[in-house]
Every structure is written in C-alpha cells, then in structure tokens.
Design a protein that fits this description.
By secondary structure, the protein is mainly beta. It has two helices and seven strands. It has a five-stranded mixed β-barrel. A hairpin with a 5-residue loop joins strand 2 and strand 3.
C-alpha cells in the first residue's frame, strides 16, 4: 500500500510573501497562512473560531507569481504536502518544524481584497511569471458569486 502525504488548506495570508533565491537562482517564496477551525468553548458552550497558522513554501516561477500578486490578508487555497525538517540551532539545541510544500496555489477572492478587483487565479506548478503577468485580473465574478 502506498503512503499518502497530501494537504489542502484554504485561509488568509497573515503577512506579505517573502521572496528569496537559492545560490543557483531558484525562487523560494515563504507564505504564512491562517486557517480557522470551529470549536466549542467548554465553559460557555458557544462555538467560535480558533486560528491555526501554517508555514508554506512555494518554489520556482509559482513562488515568484505569489510574491508579485499576493499580499497580507489575501485568501488563498494551497494544495501540497507536509515536510518535516530537523536541524541544530546555533545554541546547540535540536529544532524541528513541519511546513507545507505547495504544489499549487490558487488566488481566491478578488485582487481588491488586497489591491484591485478580479476573478480567482490558479497558478499551476509549472507556470511562468510572464504568463501570470498577462492574466486578466479585471472584471469577473463578484465575491458573492463564489460558492464558498
């Protein structure tokens, strides 16, 4: 039986994307995503939202597109996989982290949620920054038309 390592998240960016490049020139974009979970308060019995925060890494041209078109507060959908890392900190302690390596990032809402207006945009893993720069961000469905 094969193992499955798949993550699908829909949430909002908690900060602007951070774009860096490896020594070989490959783009690496870091996103921080907040995703709410509904839970019942044990004392009051009322339901409320509990935020969960996830670090997301987007590689290559897709990462460049995320850096160019996304900003804090923008809703996105991420499809990817979990990656566990372990390292030794400068003080000698062992550290570990789990992050999401994105295969695809879908821009949700309108660009007006952070910059302008438009339809949700899907950025496939092999997309180029040039093809995304030419994407039509104007017009399209209103936020009320999106079924989620």
């Amino acid at each position: 039986m094969a193992n499955i390592n798949r993550v699908v998240l829909v949430g909002n960016l908690t900060r602007d994307p951070e774009l860096r490049h490896t020594p070989s020139g490959t783009a690496v974009c870091k996103l921080r995503l907040a995703v709410n979970t509904r839970q019942k308060d044990g004392q009051t019995g009322e339901w409320g939202d509990k935020p969960n925060y996830f670090d997301v890494t987007v590689w290559g041209n897709q990462g460049e597109s995320c850096s160019q078109y996304l900003s804090k507060g923008r809703p996105v959908a991420v499809d990817g996989r979990l990656d566990w890392r372990e390292w030794e900190a400068q003080d000698g302690t062992k550290r570990q982290a789990v992050e999401i390596i994105a295969d695809t990032v879908q821009f949700l809402g309108s660009r007006g949620d952070s910059e302008g207006g438009g339809q949700p945009q899907f950025v496939p893993a092999g997309a180029t920054a040039e093809s995304n720069a030419n994407a039509d961000f104007g017009g399209g469905a209103a936020d009320d038309d999106i079924p989620f």
